[in-house]
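Quick board copy: two proteins, each given as sequence then tokens.
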Amino acid sequence: MNTSHELPVRPGTLGAVSPARSNAIVLVLAFAGITAAIMQTLVVPLIAELPTILGTTASNTSWVITATLLSAAVMTPTSGRLGDLYGKRRLMLICGSLLVIGSIVCATAGSVVPMVAGRALQGAGMGLIPLGISAMRDILPAERLGTSIALMSASMGVGGALGLPIAAAVAQNASWRTLFWGATVLAVVVVILIATLIPAAPVTARGRFDLPGAIGLGVALVCLLLGVSKGADWGWGSPTIIALLAAAVVLVLIWGWYELRVTDPLVDLRVTARPVVLLTNVSSLVIGFAMYAQSLIIPQLLQLPTSTGFGLGQDMLHMGLWMMPGGLMMMLVSPFGARLSHARGPKVSLVLGAAVVAVGYLSAIVLMGSILGLAVAVAISSSGVGLAYGAMPALIMGSVPRSETGSANSFNTLMRSIGTSVSAAIVGVVLSQMTLDLGGGFTVPSRAGFVTGLLLGAGAAAVAAVVATTIPARASALAEQNLEHPVEEDAERPVIAAHAH
């Protein structure tokens, strides 16, 4: 039984109020998404200094990054389902509160253990993004949905692009604790804005929360992502890594078997298996791979010394500033992507976005010797990511029952996260194996290694485009129609299923 006490808001009722109210809702949710995304890049400028700051080894401080990755992956699908059952606004407030607590813990940390714990809490707050996207479908008027969802989706890239130079500037000119106190202030503002300006979305889901399913998926994801993220450090052939990856496969199979038999699953795999949802999730995973490869390669090219023959000699702050236009392009193209999805269907936006990402990678190979050229290449790739990220939620939420939008959208976000993790592992192996010896035992990735990594990103984007072309056109058009004009809950399942097939 649903125990939510939030006051429901009928879909579309906000269309009767002033446009300023709708604008405020969109801006608040986008700001919340940007804030959550900033947390991901917050510690990048501190990576080299963390062992000294925390009085431990570089291996131990790597958990400051890993903990955020793991907690975000585990908590995103969980918060999505809880949002469906108990109210998305309520769960957004909880996610925002976790950001506040995590930031305070990090700001006051004096050793590695509390720092890792705080970073894990910050990662758990990433559920704000899929929850905000799902809430938009319930509380915004139909004519605002397309552009609003695209803008919210772009917030992930915008937050990452803004976070890096801001964090670098603060780290260079103030105490490292200032970074986390600043993050605390941002998170507090997010909680206040959500509490005061975001109305409660209608709660349509029924049933109980699938705790065994959440635990099973969480353990499987920890095994998978831990194995992938630590493979280079612990050795890909080590018994620990092999055991983790094997356990992940076994646990996913057991979890899937269980989810198909439980009455109220964490993730409805039958809905997820619908062609439009399945193919969108596969595209999301590959797009996540392609997007993150750029984040691993371009910053290194910008920062390597010019003595290598291909490095561009930028410091951390200037590197972040050159990367920033890419995140801003994601936001600028989101209205265009929304109009394209409305006119031609979100499938077209997804295919086009993936193709543009591939073009961006190929242009980076040609323009590697120029700072401005790499900035242009990043802007091209990021524009493609903005198109693709705006189309994915439209395809997903227009193809599932309203009672499952939070869960389905969070699962789609999880697919992107898995793609980025796999990208980090594979591109990391390439760059570590193809190196240039600078003398004195100091090596850096070679130019051939960077070119190979860029080709992998272009290839992944091309694969995503091909997969997206197989999404049934009629199902894509129906998804766009149902996103803006949803049918009744009991009729939605058979209508979508019939057209999807």
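And the next:
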Amino acid sequence: MTEHVEVAVVGAGFAGLGMAIALRRAGRSSFVILERAASVGGTWRDNTYPGVACDVPSHLYGFATHPNPGWSARYAAGAEIHRYLEDVAATEDLGDRLRLQTPLLSAQWDAAASRWTLDTGRGPLTADALVLACGRLTEPSIPDIPGLEKFDGPIFHSARWDHGADLAGRRIAVVGTGASAVQLMPRLAETTAQVTLFQRTPAWIVPRDERAYDDAERERFATHPEELAALRAALYVEGEARFASRSGDAAASAAARQVALDHLAAQVPDARLRAALTPQYSFGCKRVLLSDDFYPAVASPAVTLEPSALAAVDDDGALVAASGTRHRADALVLATGFVSQRQPYAELVTGEQGLTLAEHWSDGMTSFASTVVAGFPNLFVLDGPNASLGHNSSVLMLEEQAAYAVRALAQRAQAPGGVLRVDPQAEAAYTAEIDRAARTTPWLTGGCRNWYVDRGRLTLLWPGTVDAFRARLARADGTEFTTIPATAGGDERRSS
């Protein structure tokens, strides 16, 4: 017998749980959450490398409906965030809605029945609406390095950490200097014989100013929720203020750049090493990183900085840098990021024109409201096109998207056949808005390669503040949906 639900949510990380919370608050109970792994948590379940932590303040990196007075520090460790998400799922009593170890294998729009047919390998499932809450940092990006198979030692990605590999006292090579590398490399330097760090491009790094919350603070947050709410509000304002420096405001960018340069100068006394660690692109062009211990580790005898990319592994297993320098290592850690611009789930979803989401996004991801996509009725994508941030908490964006999806689902009852079809013109106009806002930002003009841009377009980041995103979604009044299928021909009429 085929199970049918009103809403099927794919993914049980922040996005999926946020969608479940929104559905619960709207009084909707007919939904399931499909999760390919054995527990909730998303990226915070998968990333278990040494030093893994959030770079957004803890009290802003959580759901507004589930404040946590017990965060141990200003920036929570990965395992603590994972436990928080497990606690949220338990508090929301999602056990009967969760389908763990149930991956989405395919999703097909059934035009005759006006619903989605899903294949999970666990029996047929249909849903009136489909929410893709799969995240953007889920599939590791493995670089194409000639001769990699010749390396005689453990090789693993930072997001698939091999805890069985004995790294103590060994020579370790780390490829990459992004957020994960900046966190894990100092921890490796404490326990291994030597770390060789392959740096293709240095990052702008500002102080983290980490500190633990003491028992008295946590107790005060628990007994005085108004203080916790005030702290969250203050952190939100601080985050919004950072947008100016990340997006190219001249004065704000110059001030933030100087903070980063002063931080580098204070922690790296050697002028040659300092020069190798100084970016030559605009502040904000790539993700700005936070660390108090990366530079001291690089400057220590425990670490050798190779200021070029890993280019090859030669016949006797040596690591060859783009500079031509050869290095020896006993293990290789690939901190090389994720397949973020071309989401793997897009290959699995087929819309009403017979095209996959990947085909629709063949020139880069597009949407309306960063959430709904033309040609894919009753589909919502969280944390997808232009929904990421470089200055504030991404959870804030997810909550706004989930709220928009719930409002749209309420409109579905008045839509012909209960089907919400995005007007292609609305998607095109929204995409044009994004392109105009992004045109002069450092993400496109700052002289770097970043994972925000795909085929010349800003496809990952929202080019504005959270306030602006909230206001933009509030202006979506339902006229983004048409009243007739695209296959019916003729001019598409807007619904009211």
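Board note added afterward: The radius of gyration is 23 Å.
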